[in-house]
Design goal:
The complex is a heterodimer of chains A (192) and B (375). Chain A is of the alpha/beta class. Helices cover 39% and strands 22% of the residues of chain A. In chain A, α1 packs across α5, α3 crosses α4 and α5 runs antiparallel to α6. Chain A starts with a strand and ends in a 10-residue tail after the last helix. In chain B, the strands form 3 sheets. In chain B, strands 3-2-4-5-7-6-12 form a 7-stranded mixed beta sheet, with helices on both faces. In chain B, α12 links the parallel β13 and β14. The chains are: A alpha/beta (192), B alpha/beta (375). Chains A and B meet through α1 and β2 of A and β1, β8 and α10 of B. β2 of chain A pairs antiparallel with β8 of chain B.
């Protein structure tokens, strides 16, 4: 695998995916990597499809758009249906099982985690689901140094919500690791 | 902003930061996707710096306000996208004629008309050249990265002041909205040219002898400002020799400083067989191709990227056409710059357009595929 890591965050407008992509990009810059962040969305602020891409590389990044995602996050059913056929089997796929229902194709590495549900039930705030998703992604990939990531979240989160967002990020780690431990929601052919 | 440390920055932000670094303290505009972030950042920053941000009732008024502030001695900026840029044309012509410096940002989106607001395109290239009527000169820069956006905006402000000439920053949605890692130099390390320090005693606003600095209104010199052809004091004239001289004057200053204005960059093989000529975000796809084809596989391929679109880099294109057999011109429109390339290639190379106009970027694969025909 090359050094170029392409992360695609997909879902509905209002789920905070573009902000999540900016925070991931900022964290990668703070971790001394080259980064390009792009986004695509409709004219509406909520609802509609939202997609953000982050490319992380040690080399200079020329073409700024994601073409072969190495990580895919799907935060709703529509994005799951749309993007799954477009990724390769080696892609790490994380889906929010709060909104995306199986069954999942077995030839893909799909990790289904109740991202939004956990944010709501364990932290009392659905809006931090995006940071929880980032935690799960980083747990799965180790894209950015965890401490640098946490600091970047604190810096970029709206005033007064830094700690809550960090908690969400940590919860994402926990969810992913527990999921791996219990083989929860992971498609059967995922290597153990 | 103070230290030279890598930061994550958006193209539109870099445009606003560049303008502020170059001394712009007045912004008037009417927000429009995908240029809105320029206005947002100027609104947040200018008041702290003692500057002025005005959201006007529309783009026509925004352009007028910018011209007024410039005559008053401020460095000015306005930003828009296709639909708003269309509205600014009449006043851009006025600024060119009256030789009032200003920088106009157009972050292109898919057109014509309101088109697809969030989709990228490069359809306004000819509009930047001929959007306003009459035989006018214009300077247009087209950055291909966030960093280029930053320093070309500074160059735009400087040149605009020095030549008393409107300059257009032609971004596309991809460059305007993408964020990337950049190293921004400290404020003191930037070349920001001061304009009107040396005002000769016999200063005339439109001196026949050549370029004169703009002396702001209310600073001790009486003069007249008009969109009509005017004499060296700014008063209207229809006298044929004076009309001809006035038009030669506004064109002549760009010709004189041509080499400062026209910026291009070549990477790749020294004796290329196939050259890609690109600008804006398309440079990124082309560079990915050349990196692979030349740096990895040593194929006779090169890329001439155009930071300046107008005045058109005629000499540079003519020279490359003599070396190459084939020139590929990828553009996110139905073919605009390709006509100019053909004009200056003078039949010395085969010119092959590659056009995409579905609201998506041209991918490296598309260029590679075409390139493969000659290699």
């Amino acid at each position: 695998m090359s050094n170029r890591q392409e992360v695609l965050l997909t879902g509905a407008g209002g789920q905070g995916l573009i902000l999540a992509s900016i925070i991931l990009a900022e964290a990668a810059v703070n971790d001394n990597k080259n980064v390009v962040q792009t986004q695509s969305y409709g004219p509406e602020a909520r609802g509609g499809a939202s997609m953000a891409g982050v490319i992380i590389d040690v080399d200079t990044i020329e073409y700024p758009k994601v073409t072969k995602p190495s990580v895919l996050l799907c935060m709703n059913q529509a994005s799951f249906n749309k993007y799954i056929p477009k990724v390769e089997e080696s892609c790490i796929i994380i889906v929010d099982s709060t909104f995306v229902s199986g069954s999942y194709r077995e030839d893909y590495k799909i990790t289904a985690l109740p991202i939004t549900q956990a944010a709501r039930e364990q932290l009392g705030r659905e809006v931090v689901a995006n940071m929880l998703a980032l935690g799960a992604i980083n747990a799965a990939t180790g894209l950015v140094d965890r401490e640098i990531f946490r600091e970047s979240i604190f810096k970029l989160a709206p005033k007064g919500s830094g700690e809550l967002n960090q908690q969400a990020f940590d919860l994402g780690y926990r969810l992913f690791n527990e999921g791996m431990g219990q083989n929860l929601g992971i498609s059967s052919q995922t290597p153990q | 902003m103070a230290e030279t440390k890598p930061v994550l920055m958006q193209g539109n932000e870099a445009c606003a930061e560049g303008a502020i670094s170059a001394g712009v303290r007045f912004y008037a505009g009417y927000p429009i996707t995908p240029s809105t972030e320029v206005a947002e950042l100027m609104a947040a920053k200018l008041p702290e710096l003692g500057g002025v941000f005005i959201q006007m009732e529309d783009e026509i008024a925004s352009m007028a306000a910018v011209i007024g502030a410039s005559i008053g001695g401020m460095r000015t900026l306005t930003a828009s996208s296709g639909p708003g840029f269309s509205l600014k044309q009449e006043n851009i012509g006025y600024a060119i004629m009256a030789e009032i410096p200003c920088v106009i940002v157009n972050v292109q989106r898919m057109g014509p008309s309101t088109g697809v607001p969030t989709a990228p395109a490069q359809g306004d290239v000819m509009q930047t050249r001929w959007g306003t009527h009459g035989d006018h000169p214009i300077i247009v820069f087209s950055p291909a990265s966030v960093y280029e956006t930053f320093y070309l905006t500074i160059a735009a402000v400087n040149l605009s002041q020095k030549l008393r000439q409107p300059v257009i920053m032609l971004l596309d949605e991809v460059i305007g909205h993408m964020r990337e890692k950049v190293l921004i130099p400290e404020a003191g390390k930037l070349l920001v040219e001061k304009s009107s320090d040396n005002v000769p005693a016999d200063w005339k606003p439109y001196d026949e002898k050549g370029l004169t600095p703009l002396v702001p209104f209310g600073f001790g010199h009486y003069y007249h400002v008009t969109g009509l052809f005017h004499d060296q004091y700014g008063f209207p004239t229809g006298d044929p020799p004076q009309v001809e001289r006035a038009l030669d004057r506004i064109h002549g200053k760009l010709e004189k400083y041509r080499d400062e204005i026209v910026l291009t960059n070549y990477i790749g093989h020294k004796e290329p067989r196939v050259v890609i000529i690109a600008y804006g975000c398309t440079v990124r796809s082309a560079r990915a191709v050349v990196k692979k084809a030349y740096w990895q596989n040593r194929l006779p391929v090169g890329l001439l990227s155009l930071q300046t679109l107008w005045p058109f880099p005629d000499k540079e294109v003519a020279a490359i056409a003599k070396q190459a057999d084939v020139i590929i011109v990828p553009e996110m429109n139905m073919g605009q710059i390709v006509g100019e390339v053909e004009r200056y290639a003078c039949g010395n190379a085969e010119i092959v357009p590659l056009n995409r106009y579905d609201g998506e970027m041209i991918s490296p694969d598309q260029i590679s595929e075409l390139l493969g025909r000659w290699l």
